Amino acid sequence: MSQQRYSRPAYKAFVEALHKSIGTAHVSNWNLYSDFLELSFIAMSQPVRKWLTGEIDAKREVRYLEIVKRYPNPNAFAEALGIVVLGLEEETHDFLGNVAGELGLLEGEWHGQFFTPKHVCDLMVQMNFDEDEKPDPEHRLRICEPACGAGAMALSVASFLKDRGFHPVNWWLEAIDKDSRMFHAAYIQLSLCGVPGIVRNADALSLEQWDAELTLAGAMFPLRHEAEEENKPAIIRPPADQFQLEVA
């Protein structure tokens, strides 16, 4: 680890915080990183579910405690998440995907996954939107990312739209990925960056789904059917029956 080079000091600080959690034990970077993603996902999604439905997911709570028990210093995971928060505040980018790549995780256990670099994501967003794109108060822009990874492309979209005056009520994102780790990573980053939408652990081709969660901004500004959108402002506190997570 001491010889590992990182492109940003924040990435190095993040990995060092993760390693604090294991003390003198041996845990692979693969397992350490995956456990961080799942713990952070559970910690961030439970309050949203509680707010919308009045209940937390009991199975996820048990799973959280199972993971925490493996580590001598689990508080270090909170430190690592704090570093991610600060890193995304400094610049909206694929922090978690970049760290995975620099740790070499994408070359082994993740079977050759490749995350699109930020400058390529930014270029693709610019190619698909007008430079003077503006929010339409009569129509909510809807975007689908069927293979979102950790959310690199979606984060470029979020930056582009924010710079052009889009509020969460003006657009909606549906982010999908088959890999449960990427589902967790995308949820973490899209939630922290205020992206309104839903993240699904699903197969975009077969429509088979294993999990799904609304981001906080998605819960605050829920998507309605177009027929219901006319002359109705965004709901800040949606009723429980709008907590629709099934694949349509």
Structure keywords:
single chain, 248 residues, alpha/beta, Rossmann fold, 2 domains, 4-stranded mixed beta sheet, 4 strands, globular
CATH topology annotation of the largest domain: Rossmann fold
Distance linking N and C termini: 45 Å
Number of strands: 4
Q: What is the assembly state of the chains in this entry? A: single chain
The level of helicity is: 40-55%
Number of domains: 2
Query: By helix and strand content, what is the structural category?
Result: alpha/beta
Strand order of the largest sheet: 1-2-3-4
Ranges where pLDDT stays below 50 over 5 or more residues in a row are 226-248
Explain what you see:
The chain starts with 8 loop residues before the first helix and ends in a 19-residue tail after the last helix. Strands 1-2-3-4 form a 4-stranded mixed sheet. It is of the alpha/beta class and about 250 residues long. The chain folds into 2 domains: about 10-105, no CATH class; about 120-240, 3-Layer(aba) Sandwich (Rossmann fold). It is globular and about 55 Å long. Helix 1 (about 10-20) runs antiparallel to helix 4 and helix 2 (about 30-55) crosses helix 8 (about 180-190). It has helices at about 10-20, 30-55, 60-70, 75-90, 95-100, 120-130, 150-165, 180-190, 215-220, 225-230, and strands at about 140-145, 170-175, 195-200, 210-215.
Secondary structure elements and their pairing?
Blueprint: H1 9-20, H2 29-53, H3 58-68, H4 75-90, H5 95-102, H6 118-128, E1 141-145, H7 152-163, E2 171-177, H8 180-192, E3 197-202, E4 209-214, H9 216-220, H10 226-229
Parallel strand pairs: 1-2, 2-3
Antiparallel strand pairs: 3-4
Helix pairs in contact: 1-4, 2-3, 2-8, 6-7
